[in-house]
């Protein structure tokens, strides 16, 4: 029987703006089982990053609950949550977020030092083993600015795996990579899921998402199961609606200019 790893109930996130409350998440119910690989789709601004932040305990919801491997992320005290997150969640960012003054191997060691995972004398060897696994051990003593985008993302993945976390989250992790590098990164995510990790990746790349067994879409503040075909149709409709609104605004602007010209 599948074992739930992430359980979200009635999740709401509302931001106060000058124009009034803005409801980004509108009562989401969501379950992801241990060892599953999920691709989360959705238009820009739909709340995907906000949702990931709720799962990781980086931000607090307005209402609702989030359980990750049995831990109540919403109710946990921040000092405990920070340590728990460092040991249990590996996060891969779109823009890598590597520390520029540290070498590649030192960047991978940072999570181990921060969360006090593994013996200090073991950390460098573990970091090197991860870099070797990802095919960039020969870059270990370089600084991030000396690496290509694909290489930097591999370093970011190695860092995310440093503490052997059961959950790996990626927020557009291939958004700045070329097609070949992006494909290689997704292969690594598939390997993680095959090894029993739970993997949740936000992506706009439908070609790569085509190889993910479970795909969901976040739109209008809600998450629902979907297929790539349905998601593509919805995205096409959204783009057409945007184009129509743009055309209407241009038509109104043109009409207004013509009226002023005749006065």
Query: Which CATH architecture of the largest domain is right?
Result: 3-Layer(aba) Sandwich
Q: Point out poorly predicted stretches.
A: none
Which structural class do the helices and strands define?
alpha/beta
Report the count of strand segments.
Answer: 10
What order do the SSEs take from the amino end to the carboxyl end, as H and E? EEEHEEHEHHHEHEHEEH
What is the rounded Rg?
21 Å
Could you give a short account of the major beta sheet? 6 strands, mixed
CATH homologous superfamily annotation of the largest domain? P-loop containing nucleotide triphosphate hydrolases
Helix tally equals 8
Which geometry do the CA atoms define? globular
**Amount of helix:** 40-55%
Give a brief description:
The protein has 8 helices and 10 strands. The protein has helices at 48-56, 78-88, 104-115, 120-133, 149-161, 179-194, 206-209, 228-262; strands at residues 4-17, 20-33, 37-41, 63-68, 71-72, 89-93, 167-171, 198-202, 214-219, 222-225. α2 (78-88) packs across α3 and α3 crosses α4.
Description:
The chain is of the alpha/beta class and 263 residues long. The chain has two domains: 223 residues, Rossmann fold; 30 residues. The protein has eight helices and ten strands. The protein has a six-stranded mixed β-sheet with strand order 6-7-8-3-9-10, with helices on both faces. Strands 2-1-4-5 form a four-stranded antiparallel β-sheet, covered by helices on one side. Helix 2 packs across helix 3 and helix 3 packs parallel to helix 5. The N and C termini lie far apart (75 Å). 34% of the residues are buried. The model has no long low-confidence stretch (mean pLDDT 87).
């Amino acid at each position: 029987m599948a074992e739930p790893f992430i359980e979200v109930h009635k999740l709401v996130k509302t931001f106060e703006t000058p124009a009034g409350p803005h409801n980004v998440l509108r009562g989401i119910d969501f379950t992801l089982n241990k060892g599953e690989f999920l691709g989360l789709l959705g238009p820009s601004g739909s709340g995907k990053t906000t949702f990931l932040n709720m799962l990781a305990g980086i931000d607090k919801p307005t209402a609702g609950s989030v359980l990750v491997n049995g831990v109540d992320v919403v109710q946990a005290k921040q000092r405990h949550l920070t340590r728990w997150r460092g040991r249990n969640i590996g996060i891969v960012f779109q823009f890598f977020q590597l520390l520029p003054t540290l070498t590649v191997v030192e960047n991978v060691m940072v999570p181990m030092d921060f969360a006090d995972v593994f013996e200090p004398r073991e950390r460098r060897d573990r970091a090197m083993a991860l870099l070797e696994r990802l095919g960039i051990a020969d870059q270990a003593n370089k600084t991030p600015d000396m690496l290509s985008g694909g290489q930097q993302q591999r370093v970011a993945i190695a860092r995310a795996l440093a503490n052997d976390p059961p959950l790996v989250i990626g927020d557009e992790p291939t958004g700045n990579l070329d097609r070949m590098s992006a494909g290689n990164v997704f292969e690594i995510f598939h390997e993680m899921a095959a090894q029993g990790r739970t993997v949740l990746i936000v992506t706009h790349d439908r070609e790569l998402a085509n190889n993910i067994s479970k795909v969901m879409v976040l739109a209008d503040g809600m998450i629902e199961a979907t297929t790539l075909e349905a998601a593509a149709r919805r995205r096409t409709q959204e783009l057409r609606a945007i184009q129509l609104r743009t055309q209407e605004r241009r038509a109104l602007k043109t009409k207004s200019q013509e009226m002023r010209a005749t006065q």
